[in-house]
Amino acid sequence: MEASISRKLRxxxxxxxxxxxxxxxxxxxxxxxSDARRGVEIQAELAEGLPIGLVYVHLRQSTGDPAxxxxxxxxxATAFAARRxxxxxxxxxGFGLKRVRRLATVESADMRLFNTVPSGQVxxxxxxxxxxxxxxxxxxxxxxxxxxxAKRFPTIHEDDRSKxxxxxxGGVGIFSDSDPWFGGYGDAFNAGxxxxxxxxxxxxxxxxxxxxxxxxxxxxxxxxxxxxxxGAVSWLMSGTAGHDIYNSGNWGHGDFEKLYAGMxxxxxxxNSVVDMSVGKQVYQLRDGFLLSKIPVSxxxxxxxxxxxxxxxxxENTVIVRAKSSNLGLDAFLIEPSEIEEIATDTKxxxxxxQYQFADAEAxxxxxxxxxxxxxxxxxxxxxxxREGLRTFNPSVSLKKLFGREGAWLKAxxxxxxxxxxxxxxxxxxxxxxxxxxxxGWRPTLSxxxxxxxxxxxxxxxxxxxxxxxxxxxxxxxxxxxxxxxxKNANLTTNRATLSVKPSxxxxxxLDYFHHRADSLNNVGGIGPLQTLQSRDIGQEVTLTAYRYxxxxxxxxxxxxxxxxxxxxERALGPDTDDWYTVQAALxxxx
Length: 590
Fold this sequence. Notes:
Porin, mainly beta, globular, 2 domains
């Protein structure tokens, strides 16, 4: 069975790559405003660290000459500097927008951000008003003054070469779970979890969470060179009042969230840049199949605000990015931010090579774990070290499947082996979707089949896939409920999603998940689910609402029910029940 799944997955991934390589590349199609606005609008903080899927320049009115319009768009794109395929950073994008506003040909400019369809990236829309009159000539012997800009919060200082801002983020939420742990089996699922001191039992518990994150950020050009230094520092204080799924009482925690510095060098040549950064920062690859910004940090235990999940930065990450035209290369070394009680001292290194076509992207990523105290358990009692794990990960994304507007396909495959013992594990997904681009509400329907291999206890080879840092709400989290009880390992999931967007600021999403185990052997899983008596893990239905409220507020509401399958029912006993969760959170960003 496992071999059959693996063969099918390799075939689908290879077929998807063939589709990409066959796409025309001689002429690059122009991105349209509709591409930028397919997703719901979001704030810059929510886009931090996400890959940029699109940068679109829109002129609010024409100059009257199509050739001058295109020339102005090119000037704006050059001044903004951030390009498709790079990672979004607020301090860098804010400085780029300032440079756009200071162009002599620009009257005004604004930036708006949207989730891409499919999700996992950010679309950047620059809305520009051309200057209708030429700026006044300076008097002889005097230099032209830069256009005046009103300084307002969160701006601290800005001039031709720099911009410095305050950071002020926060959030508050109320959460309620009924019959958690599928009927109150919190002790069984958390028997080996030192951060869960009082896991929830049967019944319903409601609690509140909040956090606040003040800080500073900025970017500055060095002399007249195309060299820019940037960075940010912030402190995050979080708190919980009540009884969440792991602990009870009132507690809080404070620590640095952002603490990084970087350097950008614009090289000679079109769209060429080198970007190096180090410190506590956010980094994500594509839609988080193997590296999401969410599981790199954690808010479990003493850190509080578990469901709000405000912590997204690593303990330390070193990133070197190089981009020239449509070819990009990332090299990274990530040290996750772990809780002391369950720290594994894991480090993840890797290289990501990607190429941007007109309506497609192809990439290959290599991951390596040079250090880790974590081990894999086997049915014969062996403890295999995670240190030395290697992962090979090709991927493809087609924005216009078969040339049809609104139709898309994404596929990734991953193969793992180990430098010290016999290991052969694989994982992957195929994700198809279609968005109706005409008419109101822009409905989107998608289907994703994903699989993460399990271990066959009858072979000496270890075959259980290690999901690295897979996750992300709306991306590769295996359900808002099931993610608490089951990992992206030894798991095959069918997921169907329907979303509608009544406006650019509101998105409603209905998700259905159906989970099955790849193998009955689940050693290394959570709690009582070590040996399964059925492959039927369960189902989950989730309704999510995202509401962008102006420039600084974002509202999120979730209602979900996880229905245990035969595997969970037989592991826990006859009194299992559906697990319900209802969540509402309001975030503020400056």
